[in-house]
Amino acid sequence: MADGKTLRVLLCDDEPGMRLILRKLVERAEGFEIVGEAEDGEEGLRLFEEKRPDVVFLDVDMPRLNGVETAKRIQDMDPRAALIFATAYEGYRDEAFEVYAFDYLVKPFKNERVLATLERIRGLLAGSDRAEPPRDLKPRPAARKRRDRLLLRSRDGVVFLDMDDILLVQRENRQTVLYTADGSYTTSDTLSEVEERLDPDLFFRCHKSYIINLTCIDSITPYGRWTYVVKLRGTQRDALITHDKYEELEKMYT
Predict the structure, then answer these.
(1) Phi then psi dihedrals of residue 65, to 5 deg
(2) Cα separation of 78 and 170, whole Å?
(3) For the segment 31-87, what is each residue's pLDDT rounded down to a tens digit?
(4) Which element (helix H / strand E) includes 103?
């Protein structure tokens, strides 16, 4: 996200009164605009696919599709969307952790808490608030013979990719996409199916939606409460890494 960009917000809550409260708070925050409101999860997914917001407020208890399942499907389309649960149910925090929600607000919440969360999102998505990356990142020593190439099936047939050329693998728009310096390749295989065929000494599953080439890590930046952004050399794209995976990565190089 570039400085000065207005961030787009989607509200998903079956209570009109709560949507009104959230709408007024978003309107008070600098740099945000509401692009849609949904009364249930299915409508929220439709609006997300149509509007592609940067931020989504989600109630947990919604008709037709609950907030947690809605969040999972949103992540499969765009794992970088900032998800904020605003709910009367405190017992769903674990499920929120699983989808790496940016924040979890329990109703009734203080207005200042919502405004502070939005301000933090704006700062992070504008590229501020950096952290030190793990130092001296190098490929893990190979424990066995390297796999040199990956066979990838797509609608257009079969392609072979050199392992070293793959910079990033991620889920987006309900598909798995492999990025190289020269382009991208899409497959209907799941991320886990691709991961099984990648060289484990070269690639690291850093998030439920991302796999990164360890030799391409440039820096790591905080993003949300439980995640960081990984900047990669050789591409303008980046990845997310969870807090536990960040700690695992640090241990690999200390």
Answers:
(1) -155, 120
(2) 10
(3) 999 999 999 999 999 999 999 999 999 999 999 899 999 999 999 899 889 999 998
(4) strand 103-106
The SS3 call for residue 70 is helix
The two tokens of residue 156 are 């257009």
Query: Rounded distance, CA 42 to CA 64, Å?
Result: 6
Kind and range of the H or E run holding 239: strand 238-242
Distance CA 187, CA 205 (A): 18
Edge-to-edge strand order for the sheet containing 203-207? 183-187, 175-180, 166-172, 210-213, 203-207
Instruction: Please work out, in degrees rounded to the nearest 5, the angle formed at the alpha carbon of residue 10 by the alpha carbons of 7 and 14.
Output: 160
Do β-strands 238-242 and 166-172 pair in parallel, antiparallel, or remain unpaired?
unpaired
SS3 149: strand
pLDDT at 140 over 60: no
One-letter amino acid at 155 equals R
pTM given for the model = 0.70
